[in-house]
Amino acid sequence: MTWVVLALLAALSWGFYGATLHAGQLALKNPLRALLCVGVAYFLIGVVAPLIGLSTQGVGLTGFTTKGTTLATVAGALGAIGAVCIIYAFRNGGLPAYVMPLVFGGAPL
Questions:
Q1: Is the pTM of this model over 0.70?
Q2: Would you call 106 exposed, middle or buried from its count of C-beta atoms within 10 A (0-12, 13-18, 19+)?
Q3: DSSP of 68-105, one letter per residue?
Q4: Taking Cα atoms as reference points, which of 23, 45, 43 lies closest to residue 34?
Q5: What is the distance between the alpha carbons of residues 17 and 7, in angstroms, rounded to a whole number?
Q6: For the chain, first and last CA: distance in Å?
Q7: SS3 sequence, 9-68?
């Protein structure tokens, strides 16, 4: 059942993502500033945290395969492209209450 709790926490964090990103973008008055802040957060959470975790597991940067690295990197790029699209959807008049359900409702399709 741990996976259910983790999935619900992901839904909760992504649920707040749109509204928080929209508010930040409005406060920053430029979508590229908001994207830069998202990138910094991705770096801290997506790069620094795994490096620390891997080093505490004693495996370091070993065990990477070409296929796994390529697929995971493409997945990361797709996530970043999605963030750019969301930011520009907000920039072009979309509101979180409409943009986010379209994004997350359409994702499984």
A1: yes
A2: exposed
A3: HHHHHHHHHHHHHHHHHHHHHHHHTT--HHHHHHHHHH
A4: 23
A5: 15
A6: 25
A7: HHHHHHHHHHHHHHHHHHHHCCHHHHHHHHHHHHHHHHHHHHHHHHHHHCCCCCCCCHHH
* Helical (H) or strand (E) element with 3: helix 2-28
Task: Report the alpha-carbon angle 49-50-53, nearest 5.
Answer: 90
Radius of gyration of the chain (CA): 16
Give me the amino acid identity at 22: H
Cα–Cα distance between 102 and 106 in angstroms, integer?
6
The pLDDT value given to residue 23: 95
- pLDDT of 104 > 90? The answer is no
For the stretch 38-70, what's the b/e string if a residue is b when 16 or more beta carbons lie within 10 angstroms of its beta carbon? beeeeeeeeeeeeeeeeeeeeeeeeeeeeeeee
Average pLDDT of every residue of the chain: 92
Q: Which residue has the tokens 């709790």?
A: 5
